[in-house]
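Re: beginner question about structure tokens

> Can someone show what the tokenized structure looks like for a real chain? I only ever see the sequence side.

Sure, here's an example I had lying around. Input first:
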Amino acid sequence: MNLTFGLEFSRSFRILFFSFFISAYALDGQINKFEFSSSVDSTFVNYFGNGKPQRIQLFEFGLLNGPSWEFHSSGQIMIHNQWSKGLRNGLELTFDQAGKKIKSTTWLDGRLNGEELVYYPTGVVQKRTIWSLNLKHGISIWYHDNSIEAAIYPYSRGKIDGDVIYFDSNGLEVSRKEYQNNELIKKMKR
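And the corresponding structure tokens:
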């Protein structure tokens, strides 16, 4: 007589029941791949209390490697990015709970490198910044919600260097400030 389940439960049911408990921890942790041809060592998945995934990440040799997803508790994707040998590498997209893109950033070996775009809730670009190895480098432009330039900031190796120009919502210049090596040199009103 089986004291655990009684006589009415079959052997296959008991195996299924215990295998569920043994493997349940993997639902909130690493799920190992046993295919030797796969380049992915494991996939990490954890869940919200409602059963929807919170994060899905791929690992190789213990480091994040490949695509990664983070989700809002509603199940809507929040962040999608790429990893290479434990460092962010490639395009990272951020979304709000409604699924609208609110930010896109480019990474190279764990550093901001390339174009970063931030969006208004309407989908119009709010800010465009160029990064070079974690430093703002080039022109950074802020926009009014009608897509007209609001301000232009020139950067050189992370410091404001040149004329910062401010515009009204019709695109007319309202003021200008001259910077050199991140220090204000002169204010000019128009």
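Each token stands for a local structural state, so reading them left to right follows the chain. The domain at 11-189 is CATH 3.90.930 (Outer Surface Protein A; domain 3).
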